Task: structure prediction
Amino acid sequence: MSQNNVYTNKVEEEYMDIVSKNAWALVYQKLGMSSQQFCYTWYEAKKPENKPLNRYRDVNPYDHTRVILKRSERDYINANYVTLGRCNRRYILTQGPLAFTVGHFWLMIWEQNTKAILMLNKVIEKSEIKCHWYWPQAEGEANKMSFNDVRLEVVLVSEEDCGYYSTRLFKLRDMESGASRDITQYHYTTWPDFGVPTSPVAFLQFLKRVRESGMLDPTDGPPVIHCSAGIGRSGTFCLVDCCLVIVEKEGIENVNIQEMLLEMRRHRMGLIQTPDQLRFCYQAVIEGTKRLDPNFKDEDEMEESIYVVVNEEEAPPPPPPRAESLTRAPARPLPAIPASESLGSLQLSGGADSSSSESSPPTPVARSRSSSGSSASSADDEDDEPRVIADSVGGLGEDLVRRRRRELAERVSSMKRKAREAERWHALKRSLYKPLTITFGFILAGIIIYSYVKH
Result:
């Protein structure tokens, strides 16, 4: 496919049709409704002894695809096999380990003969722990981590900082047999929760590095892929990877991104958590397809100066609960489309109207704590990195950039003002609750005493 010949394949036509109709939220909601027709169970996840092992109350592994631990007092771990024969891919998608499930996490890797871990989240995001730190913080045997409950120990052999991601090599050793294996971790550090990477280009470079290692090939055990819940960012990675495999094998005309997502959701619930992530999958597949062309030129492909990052501390309120986000339309405008040099012409058709209409932000679900002291919540952080795109892509000018930043700042200010007003109202209700309760009690007591005296 010629690089100058855009709008020629089915995926791009479908993408442009959704952009022109501003229908990402509707398409995403339709997929969520289709997923609700699945009749799969998660009885094991709801057992009282297993509930504390789930990071989020509404993200549970299906029974028919869950990973079963063998050398453990309990066989449960919040993880599923995602097997796609058409793509010759098999992954294990799991949540970020809790403090007391780290041993289970490493036992799963040992028993499944896994050679690679893909970590797509930061340990701490928005001042909240999203994943327990499950590897040694320094190299060498002196700093190894030992897990006596599963008889395993982990040594950090080496670490490489690649800018927006890191790679680490671990030595995983069985304390019973003395056998050991090398495990490679690919840690993407700039992917916001409930959000998308800065650019399809950066993400595709990361995917290329992982693919070239051979860790995704079915020759060894399945790679373990996790974020915080193991459904949003993890699902996005797997969907793009699978679609590009089909492009290589069968051609872009045989790729149906929505059908592929529904097939993946038959293995683990809730994959892809927001319309933004779905839109990013389309963009990454389109961009990745262009890069398969032998005539493609990737000059300045990592140019990041075209992105203006807004202060993440002023981001909008949290999105809805993880499972509810499958069927509920987003309550705030979608951010601007992430861009790259070969998607520039696509941006023009989307224009500035590609955001959905603004409405009140959703109310986050209250957190709860299990008896083991772990935090388990349905709500999570908002996108870490809202963005606008400068005039070097798609013909957007500096005035538009400034206007979008100003509009975003006004929206954030309005949301904060509404939040303060709501808090004042709740404080007023709380201050009135006690005196009103006492007054009502006196009145009720008087009525009872009067009735007793009268009779």
Remarks:
- Residues 1-7, 300-317, 334-396 have pLDDT under 50 and may be disordered.
